[in-house]
Amino acid sequence: MTVGVPRTRVHQSDQGVERDPGAPGSRPLRIGLHDFSGHPFQVQLSRRLASRGHEVIHWHCPAFLTGKGALNLAEADPRTLQIEPIELERGFSKYSIRRRIQNARAYGGAIAAAVARSAPDVVISSNNPLLSQQTLLRSCERLGIPFVFWQQDIYSVAMTRIATARYPLVGTWIGRYFSHLEAAMLRRSDAVVPISDDFLPALRAWGVQADRITVIENWAPIEELPTAPRDNPWAREHGLVDRQVILYSGTLGLKHNPSMLAELANRYRNTDVVVVVISEGLGADFMRRAVRERDLDNLIVLPFQPFDALPLVFGSADILVAILEADAGIYSVPSKVLSYHCAGRAILAAVPESNLAARIVERVGSGIVADPTSLTSVVTAAGDLLGDRAMRDGAGVRAREYAEEAFDIEKITDRFERIITRVTSAPATRTQSA
Known about the structure:
By secondary structure, this protein is an alpha/beta fold.
């Protein structure tokens, strides 16, 4: 585990930053930003906060299999930034409930210990499993460190669905326990940052104080995801230049339906259309079996690609696909859709219409939203996009325009700084758990 650097305060002038003393975050702070998943936009926020003179420690879990952001320090990074992986002895299990609980408790102890060593002025935690989050929050309470719950999902909803499906006799009780746990942690947090207005009714029902809630929608690091031509080195390496490409990149887990991608490949066998799936884990294993068992020579399955290769990866596609099961509801917003917008490619979003990602695609006109329960709907949407170059190009242009307008990291960082300033300036008034 990386050892923290000494606590030294750095003035804005050291970074060449001159700002109004009344601007958000004008007092340099030591900020701990924890993103369990290691996604791209959270570490971008850490970099931007560090560039403003704050000391930032960015923690993540490398054992968790998903697409990662730029998690290695670069020469251009401010010296006030640390990136510290929180290692587990064994890989994090997504699919065994018993092992997942064990991993979550072990990870919670490890991240809590890292916070105790670093002694930040504030902790922001994102994507953390609930049991890990519980341990971390308790540690921050003991140490008197303000805690910001960056809410990427309403986790107990998904956990209830899984538990009741697997354990009919006790699943409802398990779901109630995790719902109570999540609600209590949200009430105890000094600030809550949900990623969608859709979360607000649940937060109100759980008694979270309205003045502690700030909705900040997710984004993608657009400066790190420039557009790329279809004919590029990555496309050539994988034989994609002269083919029409439907590409999916991201986790294929319990909230997704990998069979839909296999069916797309089957629909377009013996054509110039190829389906490329970039993922790891059980979903990727399912796809590889489909290639063998169904002889789908137009289905290519690859592991997660390095973050700096993503512009070329996305640029290789004609259509970028997002999938979310209908019963995942409105509380899980696939962040890959935001990265896709940076690529300037048409998006096929097989997600519920009520989901924020679907609403963005429809509002912006960056692609087509298809019914995730209907293979016919998905195949029809793919056919419409593949058959109409002007439609695809127009959707791609609108996608990039949306990203350039919405993903302003300076404005986003201002909003987080205001939250940080508020919670580090105000006396602690947490509501303790039952």
